[in-house]
Amino acid sequence: MLTRMARLPLHVLPTFRAVARRANLRAAAEELHLTHSAVSQQIRLLEEQLGIALFDRHGRRVALNAAGAALLRAVEPALAQLDEGVRAAHAASSGAGDENLRVSVLPSFAQRWLLPRMADWRARHPQIALELHASQQVVDLAREGFHAALRTGIGPWRGLAAQRLIDSPWIVVAPRVAAQRLRDAEPDALAHEPLLGDGPMWQRWFALAGHRVKVKPVAEFNDAGLMLQAAEQGLGLALAREVLAADALADGRLVRLSPIALEDPDAYPYWLVYPPALAEWPPLRAFREWLAEELSRPAGTATAGRTGSRSRAVSGAGPKRRAR
Fold it and tell me: How far apart are CA 15 and CA 13, in angstroms?
């Protein structure tokens, strides 16, 4: 076994990874820009050198067997680190010319907080083109070609550095007309209003206010930006993240109805995650510093704000419950 390991053909491991992911030799060949024959030969070479089969063949499709799955778990982190190193090298070699920073971001955060501040980002960093990909799905940064992602969660994320941006509580907001009518209302009176958002979260807010009420929202949303837009249009009261409602509160589109804020441990703080190899890449470092500065501004300012901000760097893996 040691002799075989000493002769392990390292150059075929990226091919092995591609075939394992695609479960198809031809699809892997297209991904790698190789011929079907070349991919097949590389997999055969790897299996011969190890002396074991790594895949079960089913017609045109292949599937990892137990040995192949074990090998993939062992080599994938090293290959990912090499990918990051190559990307960092390309980034470092780009010089002072125009550069693109590709960021995956939650749609609600993009719509309610990031886009209104894009003019400021552009004015400060005209040489850095910010490419935003709005999605509620957690993307594989290395595989999809992203430099960073804005996420919510409890972290940490495996193989990524993470900067904790902000912990934002849930507050009750309403359009101005409804707010004027409910100005002196007790919290339990809000239960009789049309409510927007997650029913269990509303019940927790009412419990925090000292009331046990049965809540049935008139509408629920998988995106907080849509929910806040519905509230602005008078559909009902919304229980929303303060950071996402901050601009609408500042310009009067929405009004906060109660000082009671739900600090939900499951609501998840916002994080910026990125490959450690890119930590000092100038475009990413500029974006990190700009985010921290903008999120530190007091709520109600022109580039409205936050309720608290902390930053730290960690590494690891964690679950994601739902997009915010």
Answer: 5
Residue 196 backbone class (left: φ over 0; alpha: ψ -120 to 50; beta: rest)? beta
pTM over 0.90: no
Q: Classify each residue of 149-162 as buried b or exposed e, where b means 16 or more C-beta atoms within 10 Å of its C-beta.
A: bbbbbebbbebbbb
Structure confidence by residue, pLDDT tens digits, 231-253 = 999 999 999 999 999 999 999 99
Q: Three-class SS string for the chain?
A: CHHHHHCCCHHHHHHHHHHHHHCEHHHHHHHHCCCHHHHHHHHHHHHHHHCCCCEEEECCEEEECHHHHHHHHHHHHHHHHHHHHHHHHHHHCCCCCCEEEEEEECHHHHHHHHHHHHHHHHHHCCCEEEEEEECCCCCCHHHHCCCEEEEECCCCCCCCEEEEEECCCEEEEEEHHHHHHCCCCCHHHHHHCCEECCHHHHHHHHHHCCCCCCCCCCECCCCHHHHHHHHHCCCCEEEEEHHHHHHHHHCCCEEECCCCCECCCCCCCEEEEECHHHCCCHHHHHHHHHHHHHHCCECCCCCCCECCCCCCEECCCCCCCCCC
Q: Taken in order 73, 78, 80, 81, is the CA torsion positive or negative?
A: positive
Torsion angle defined by CA atoms of residues 170, 222, 196 and 203, in that order, rounded to the nearest 10 degrees:
-60
Q: What are the distances in angstroms from CA 262 to CA 97, 144, 203, 205, 215?
A: 46, 35, 11, 6, 16
CB 209 within 8 A of CB 190: no
128-134, strands of its sheet edge to edge: 128-134, 99-105, 148-152, 270-274, 161-166, 313-314
Peptide bond into 156 cis (omega under 30): yes
93-138 confidence digits (pLDDT tens) = 554 444 789 999 999 999 999 999 999 999 999 999 999 999 888 8
